[in-house]
Amino acid sequence: LLCLSKKIFIDLNPLIIFSNGPTINSIVDFNITHHIGVVTPTSFKMYWSDSGKFEVLPLNRNDIFVSNFLSLIEKHTLTKFVNKCLQASINEADEMCDDDMLVEQFLDENRLTLKLKTILNYSLMNDWFSSPSSPKNLTKKYFF
User: What pLDDT is attached to residue 52?
Assistant: First the structure.
């Protein structure tokens, strides 16, 4: 990996700042952008001990289908899950899950494998597992 480029940046604990928020607005207002480097990540990679490689995490529907590291069944399951969440978000997520249901139970109920749960955790919903919110509220936040 190092032989491909003269510079490499691996952030082991990334802080993702969303582009439309109070932090970004303050940075722009105070002209701090002239003193810091702002880099847009092209992909998110995760080390998988099974294969011993860094794999690109799929961040959108196209990435899911292009991914070589997901099986056809996993691609179908993940796409079905995202579509279900999108549809539930449009319908206000009324019948999708109970308010008392934990996120882990919600993912298990949708028959997601450990690999898919890990992908969802690190690519989309990093605070699902650290937040006591119900899946219904988080579904509205991430998939609407």
Answer: 86
